[in-house]
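haha ok so turns out i had the wrong file open the whole time. this is the CORRECT one, sorry everyone. sequence first:
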Amino acid sequence: MRPLAFLAVLLAACVEEPVARAPSGPFTASAEIAVQNRMSTAFRLRKLSVVLDGAPLTDTSDEALLGLATIELGARPLQAGDHPVVFHLVFQGNGSGVFAYLRNYSFDVHSDQKLHVEPGARLRFVGEAYERGSATTPIEERPALRCTTTTLGS
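then structure:
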């Protein structure tokens, strides 16, 4: 056997196969982050910005993306502790006929949230745009955002 071939065989025998290991180090938790649009057709989402720990997750005006009922922003590795999440959504009024005046309205929804993460946790954090109030609530007071955190199975 040639010396280089022997060395290659020897090295190949020493290489370990990768083994899946539990996360270690500072990022032992993860969170899936999403935005749900539960607004009626009287409101059209025009811009979405989400910032986690000071880093933008999305800042988009893409109509195809904003037209989805749920916008998935992906899973992020996180350290245990509290994480600031800032949501900024811009809606445009949408109407026709006697409600055409709604198109002249723009609604800014800004929400500062806190995501609390325990070590090893797998979470789903969802910001949900919804209309608060009832039919008698003034249109400019309806757009709102609430957040829910769900623990995912292992």
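Strands lie at 29-37, 43-52, 55-60, 70-78, 81-93, 106-117, 122-131, 143-151.
again sry for the mixup
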